[in-house]
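Show me any protein, keeping tokens residue-aligned.
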Amino acid sequence: MPATPRLRTHRPASPDLLRSVFRQHAAGVAVITARGERGPVGFTATSLASVSVDPPMLSFGVGTGASSWPAIAGTDHVGVHVLGEHQQDLAATFARSGADRFGGATAWREGPEGIPVLDDVLAWLVCRIVTRVPAGDHRVVLAEVLAGDPAGVGRPLLYHQGRFGGLRD
């Protein structure tokens, strides 16, 4: 049996500790979209998780200070897009504050429930929001899947150590 590594001195809980630990955690990259009062909105999320298969449900987190939060807070439906490793620029655009997320460089169309659906993603879903759970400076959104398409081609985009990247063989 391998020896257990020695524990280093621990640090007290803080936002920096949480950020530092999660930089070690590789996560898939998604873009969440919705219809806002002034047009489509969206943001990059690495907190996407499957919650239930029957009924099909997922969750994601969104900061209450994010520019997309008012639209997410006021809508009944969202789009969830799993990005491919060829979409690092798209992920960065939707992660950047003040960016023109649905400008000329972003290919999209109106999907079910009027939700903005991004082109050329690995997979997308349109979901009905079931609830928004307060969680510190965020809300955890639980949503039921209504429709989607898993047929995109490519490998998933990952986020690790503060950078976007792909899988290595």
User: Anything to note?
Assistant: Helices lie at 15-23, 69-74, 88-95. Residues 15-23 form the longest helix (9 residues). The chain is about 15% helix and 45% strand. The longest strand covers residues 123-135.
